[in-house]
Structure formats: structure tokens, C-alpha cells
Amino acid sequence: MSRYDDEYYIVETEYTPTQVFLSPTTETSERSYHYKRLTSGKPVFFVNGFKERDARTGDKRVVSDVMFDGASFVVRDSIKPFLDQFDIESMQLHPAVVIDDHDVWHDNYWYLNFYGELDCWDRNSSEYEYLDDDDDTDAMIDKYSLNPEVLDAIPEEKRLLFKMDGAATAYVFAHKRVVKYFLENAYTGIRFFKVANFREGDQHL
């Protein structure tokens, strides 16, 4: 285990009946926003991914401070000044609009767009298996350990947040400085799992 396993946390959504799980609109999907830097100032748009099901079941979702679209997420305006302090590599804060189930537009959000990924999990210390014996690019990782040689070479400010590369599930990882800020302000819709303690599946317990 490396010291970084105690400094970093895996970022996850809240799994509750009222939590919104975002889905991009068709127009936003066509912008390939998941893996390239966005140059237009036009916002990305999201809706409740379970809107149709909720209409049938009567479930009610609540717009929270943080809402996830896959591994990445949107944050309220109030969070942006904190993140703007740092020069985080391969990440941009892009304007986002969340359209709720009543067609109300919430335009006070910013999408954390990770247009680059960082492969920094340690093949010697992590527990994993490859999905395909002939393809060693993406691994199913049961237990992470972070590679100090990779992280030591990157200034801390540039790696306060990053999306993992080389793994089948591209989790976002957050440094303890970021986690401290979110927890102290009790922002809703987000959870953190310390890398040293996390095993795949813990997020669903």
C-alpha cells in the first residue's frame, strides 16, 4: 500500500430513492463531451435519467448540490470558486443546465469535464483481473492501490481531481483537500470512499 491510498478518495453518487441520476440530452450526447475539451461556451444539458420510470412509480427526485452523469458530475455555483483556485490538469468546469421533471431549468451548475485521464493504479499492489486475456488496457479492479512513482511526478495541485485510466470503471479520484471542503460544507448528492479502505461493491452496501 502506498501513502497515496490514504490521501485519495473514490468519488461516488448517493444511492437513495430521491437522488437524481443525470442523463444528457440528445444534443449534448452528440457533442462527445465525455472525452474531449469543450471549446464552445454553450452549456451541456441534463435531465433525470429515470424520469419515465419515476412517472410510472410516483417516485420523486430532488435536485441536489452534486449530481452524477456516469463517473463525472455537476456541482452548484457555490462550489465553483473553490475548484477555480486550482490548476487541475485535464479538467474543465463547463456551464451545465439540469432540467427537472417539471421542466424547470436549473442553470446554476457546472460540469466537471475530464477530457484526459490518468493511469496511476499500481499493477503490483492492486487486486485486479483483465476482462480479455488478449487486451491488457482495461482491468476490472477489485482493490486499488495508487502508484507513487506516477503521482510523485505531478504537482499536487494538478492532481487534486482526476479520472482513472486503464480501468474498466473510470472512477473520479479526489485528494483529501477536496474531500475536506465538500464534507465541511455538507454538500448533498456525493460520497467519498478512501482508497485504502475501498473494495469494489462497497458503494452499493
Distance between the termini: 24 Å
Average the pLDDT over all residues and give the rounded result.
94
- Main sheet properties: 6 strands, mixed
C-alpha Rg (nearest Å):
17 Å
Shape: globular
Total strand segments: 12
Q: Secondary structure elements and their pairing?
A:
Layout: H1 4-7, E1 8-13, E2 22-24, H2 26-29, E3 44-48, H3 51-57, E4 66-69, E5 72-76, H4 80-84, E6 91-99, E7 105-114, E8 127-132, E9 135-143, H5 148-152, E10 161-163, E11 172-175, H6 176-184, E12 190-194
Parallel strand pairs: 3-6
Antiparallel strand pairs: 1-11, 1-12, 2-3, 4-5, 5-7, 6-7, 8-9, 10-11
Report on the architecture of this protein.
- The chain is 17% helix and 34% strand.
- The chain is of the alpha+beta class and 205 residues long.
- A six-stranded mixed β-sheet has the order 2-3-6-7-5-4.
Could you provide a short overview of the structure?
Helices cover 17% and strands 34% of the residues. The protein has 6 helices and 12 strands.
Descriptive tags:
six-stranded mixed β-sheet, four-stranded antiparallel β-sheet, 6 helices, globular
